[in-house]
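Design request, tokens follow.
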């Protein structure tokens, strides 16, 4: 998400046998209007939700050659 109020980025990478996860967020204003609070709260809830989400890994078996 990236708009005039905030930016939130979450990136997954596979490096060898490890998974690297990078996440960051930025609030773009130093002062928010009272009517922007509900949107800002929604963004913060998404940050908490996605940055703390579980990673589910599943083995992928190669298909038999025909």
């Amino acid at each position: 998400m990236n708009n005039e109020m905030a930016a939130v980025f979450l990136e997954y990478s596979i490096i060898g046998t490890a998974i690297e996860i990078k996440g960051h967020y930025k609030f773009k204003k130093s002062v928010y209007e009272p009517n922007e609070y509900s949107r800002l709260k929604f963004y913060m809830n998404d940050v908490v939700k996605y940055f703390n989400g579980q990673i589910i890994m599943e083995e992928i078996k190669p298909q038999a050659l025909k």
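Comment from the thread starter after seeing the answer: thanks! The longest strand covers residues 6-15.
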